[in-house]
Amino acid sequence: MIPFRVLLVTFLLTLLAFAVSLLLGIVGVVVGARLRGGTANMQVAYRDVAAPVAATVFAIVLVSSIFMEVRNYRQAKTLAGIEKIESMKD
Fold it and tell me: Greatest CA span in the chain, whole angstroms?
């Protein structure tokens, strides 16, 4: 179940980061084109803003969610061991 949760959280947060960075990239490209008096090239928003941000967020979220899941697994395992020892004492 842990790999599924890691991949699900990674996918959802990467998708969210891509959407937000694409929105901000489009706004930035449109504002920049208006200020320069030219046309807006939307490829820049995808290629130079949204894709690198999504790739970076993917890597960070994947590594951090793996660490968090491993930590939670170890903590649950330790607590179950302590509970087992406590139940043997009674």
Answer: 80
Q: With bands split at pLDDT 50, 70 and 90, how would you rate the model's confidence at 34?
A: very high
pTM: 0.82
Return the domain boundaries, the chain: 2-89
Token code pair at residue 12: 């959802």
- 17 neighbors 53 (Cβ within 8 angstroms): yes
Cβ-based neighbours of 30, under 8 Å, separated by 6 or more: 40
Q: Which SS3 state, helix, strand or coil, does residue 84 take?
A: helix
Tokens of 7: 């991949």
In this structure, the number of other CB atoms found within 10 A of the CB of residue 54 comes to: 20
CA–CA separation, 26 and 31 (whole Å): 8
* Tokens matching residue 13: 């947060």
**1: DSSP letter:** -
In angstroms, the CA 88 to CA 33 distance is 72
